[in-house]
Design a protein that fits this description.
- The strands form 4 sheets. A 5-stranded antiparallel beta sheet has the order 2-1-5-4-3, with helices on both faces.
- The protein contains 11 helices and 16 strands.
- It folds into 3 domains: 186 residues, no CATH class; 93 residues, Signal transduction histidine kinase, dimerisation/phosphotransfer (DHp) domain (Helix Hairpins), CATH 1.10.287.130; 156 residues, Histidine kinase-like ATPase, C-terminal domain (Heat Shock Protein 90, 2-Layer Sandwich), CATH 3.30.565.
- α9 packs across α10.
- The chain has 537 residues and is α+β, with helices and mostly antiparallel strands.
- The chain is rod-shaped.
- Bound molecules: adenosine-5'-diphosphate.
- Adenosine-5'-diphosphate (ADP) binds next to α10 and α11.
Length: 537
């Protein structure tokens, strides 16, 4: 019993250890993943900073700066002239490309507050806002030749203009000049900036990572899309970064969203982005739980079997004791000449004979059972006519019956041929007859018969006993299984008789079962393959 609990404890401990290992594995994978995710996020941040720097250079240095210089040069050379359209500004090669960014030019007189624009059709609201803003900006306007930009939302639309002092070195400037930015063109300039090379430092991945592994979205204001590269990745390891006041707030209303393709994680982080092993681990854990449960169930069955075995030993001893006591008692009676008449002496001898037969039958059963357990049964089957063999066996069995008790009659209609081992057949039939007599009423008639059908021969024993409940009809054929007729019943047994029958029959290629008998009791059937035709006999 303690061994059972010890083994169960060991199994459950192994299960707990497997659980612990699974948890460890899950923890290791998820913490690796967590690290990888934050590394990818950091790289996205790095790439977004490079993007911001590059875009500001592209637009500020190659766009706004040449444009302001061209505007100021024109204004210096043409004092008092009406403003020309941006495209008409004289420009060198570098400035020429920048001209497209301006949708109109303007000048603002700081003393009179007069605003002049190159576009006579500039919406009045825009012109008024421009005037107001410039008036406020004039004091702090850059006078060192550089420029600044302003974003304004007018009637729900975002506008931006770039301004600078008209006369370099004069503080505060007497005049401001500048241009309105055609925001719809910024996307093209951003694209050029992105196209200048990988946003991630090439050293990170030996130069293998291009911008194709990056998703990029540039938004103006709340939701106006200026530029997009690629499709957003799932899962998302990225950043959202406003240009803010970098480069004196040149593109301050613009925000960049940037993410790195999770597929390239292995090139950036050792071990890449490990997939969660949870389903696999849970699967394995479930399997182990199942195996441990099966092992424990097996253990319980084993324990029950051990208990049955130990009961078996005491049952056999008990079964042996009964006939032995009888034999000793009547032998003593004879030896001490205590018999009162020759008939009594005869009866004592008969009892001794009967009980010693029972004893040898019982011993034979136990031996047979033990042999079958060790698979050491050797059979010598020979073709036999069944009817004479069964009659012989009934003759052999009759002396085992108590006087005035049950009787056995045969119903041997056919005389089939079977190939059987005679000793085995004796064991089979005697066991069935013994059970029929034991479990049936005292003066019953037990019938032993044969039936032949479809090349199979059935030998059956039909009694007038209580029969067998359907639920027990399979169980009783197993070793040690007994069905107590009622608690406290005096009917004892070893519980191996039927298992010996089934084993021997199976070794002859036959089958066994029990069904309802014709006279209210049980009918035990042994079915064997027939050998050839009907013999006479
Ligand atoms: P044993 O008779 O020694 O108990 P068996 O293996 O011969 O063992 O039989 C198993 C059980 O089957 C018996 O305990 C009994 O409950 C039941 N059984 C066997 N034969 C009969 C029968 N003819 N009528 C009623 N029950 C029977």
């Amino acid at each position: 019993m303690r061994r059972f609990y010890l083994i169960a404890l060991l199994l459950i401990s192994s299960l707990l250890l497997v659980g612990l290992l699974a948890w460890q594995a899950h923890y290791a994978v998820s913490s690796h993943r967590h690290t990888a995710e934050s590394v990818l996020g950091d790289y996205a941040d790095l790439a977004s900073s490079e993007f911001v720097r590059r875009t500001l250079t592209e637009i500020g240095y190659y766009g706004y700066y040449p444009l302001i210089r061209a505007t100021r040069a024109w204004a210096v050379e043409n004092p008092g002239a009406a403003l020309v359209a941006p495209a008409d500004l004289p420009a060198d090669e570098e400035q020429a490309r920048a001209l497209e960014l301006a949708s109109y030019l303007f000048t603002y007189d700081a003393r009179t507050g007069a605003l002049e624009t190159s576009d006579p059709e500039l919406p009045a609201a825009l012109a008024a806002e421009l005037g107001r803003r410039l008036e406020a900006l004039v004091e702090d306007a850059p006078t060192d030749g550089s420029y600044a930009s302003v974003f304004a939302e007018i009637e729900g639309e975002m506008h931006s203009f770039v301004y600078a002092a008209g006369d370099v070195g004069q503080t505060p400037p007497r005049r401001l000049l500048g241009f309105g930015v055609d925001l719809s063109l910024l996307g093209g300039w951003i694209e050029r900036a992105v196209g200048r090379g990988p946003l991630l430092p090439p050293s990170l991945s030996d130069g293998e990572l291009t911008n194709e592994s990056i998703f990029l979205e540039v938004i103006l204001g709340e939701d106006q899309l200026l530029y997009r590269l690629g499709e957003p990745y799932q899962p998302w390891f990225g950043v959202e970064k406003p240009f803010g006041d970098s480069y004196r707030g040149l593109l301050e209303e613009i925000t960049v969203r940037l993410a790195i393709d999770p597929e390239v994680a292995p090139q950036l982080v050792i071990g890449g982005l490990p997939r969660s092993r949870l389903p696999l681990l849970l699967g394995i854990l479930g399997l182990v739980v199942g195996l441990v449960l099966i092992a424990i169930m097996q253990l319980r069955r084993e324990r029950a079997l051990i208990r049955l075995r130990s009961d078996f030993v005491s049952r056999v001893s008990h079964e042996l004791r009964t006939p032995l006591t009888q034999i000793r008692m009547f032998a003593e009676t004879l030896l001490l000449k205590r018999v009162r008449s020759p008939e009594e002496g005869q009866r004592a001898l008969e009892i001794i004979d009967r009980e010693s037969r029972r004893l040898s039958h019982l011993v034979e059963n136990v031996l047979q059972f033990s042999r079958s357990e060790h698979d050491a049964i050797q059979l010598a089957p020979e073709p036999r006519s069944l009817a004479p063999l069964l009659s012989e066996l009934v003759d052999e069995f009759n002396p085992l019956l108590d006087e005035g008790g049950a009787s056995v009659v045969t119903r041997l209609v056919d005389n089939p041929q079977v190939t059987v081992d005679e000793d085995a057949m004796r064991q089979i039939v005697l066991n069935l007859l013994e059970n029929a007599v034991k479990y049936g009423p005292p003066r019953q008639e037990v019938q032993l018969g044969t039936t032949q059908r479809n090349g199979r021969v059935q030998v059956w024993v039909d009694d007038e006993g209580p029969g067998i409940r359907t639920a027990d009809r399979e169980r009783i054929w197993e070793p040690f299984q007994r069905v107590a007729p009622d608690p406290g019943s005096a009917l004892t047994g070893t519980g191996i008789g039927l298992s010996v029958v089934r084993d021997l029959v199976a070794r002859h290629g036959g089958t066994t079962w029990v069904e309802d008998g014709l006279r209210g009791g049980a009918r035990f059937v042994v079915e064997l393959p027939a050998t050839g035709g009907e013999a006479s006999g």
